[in-house]
Amino acid sequence: MLRVAIAVMLLFGALPAQATEAGWALLRNGGHVVLLRNAMTTGTVEPPNFDIEKCATQLNLSDRGRQQARKIGALFAARAAPVEKVLASRFCRTLETARLAFDDQVVEPLATLDKPTEATAEVDVAAILDIIRNYSGSDNLVLVTHLENIQALTGASAREGEALIVGLQGERLHVLGRIVF
């Protein structure tokens, strides 16, 4: 019984590494879309006085999250994963993740990638799908967004700072690979 338990732990412990390597293999070839959840934050709930224009009223990256964002950028460079464009939610934590990870010159804020509300969720998901559907670059497109958008688009979850490489299958998004940072 102990051997079975150890084998199961080893198997599941190896899965993130295998998923990460498969994800890097996809990105090296370019032409893919990456949904990247913002790096680690200082909490879990948006403060009640939230204002999109004021970072002091939002959840922000923790020091560990800033390190994680820099690591993301360094690994994209080290793994030769070319990035053509980075679109990010206007929330401070997503913009900071994008700017620390990638060249600030290629980062564009985009309201469609903001954390969805009941009133905007359906329209935002449709707009994000249009961006993905119409992307035809030879390098990779990175969309830095929130868990809610990632779940609505793929049905999958993502940790803070995790990347999902996605592609269209018919009208639905399919997760092709993952990278855990």
Could you characterize the architecture of this molecule?
- It is a single chain.
- With 181 residues, the protein is an alpha/beta fold.
- It has one domain (2-179): 3-Layer(aba) Sandwich (Rossmann fold).
- 41% of the residues lie in helices and 19% in strands.
- The chain contains five helices and six strands.
- It has helices at residues 2-28, 63-78, 92-101, 121-134, 147-154; strands at 33-37, 83-88, 107-109, 140-145, 163-169, 172-179.
- Strand 2, helix 3 and strand 3 form a beta-alpha-beta unit.
- It is globular and about 45 Å long.
- The relative contact order is 0.22.
Give me the CATH fold name.
Answer: Rossmann fold
- What's the name of the CATH homologous superfamily? Phosphoglycerate mutase-like
Any idea how many domains?
Answer: 1
Strand order of the largest sheet: 3-2-4-1-5-6
The appropriate CATH architecture is 3-Layer(aba) Sandwich
Q: Give the radius of gyration.
A: 17 Å
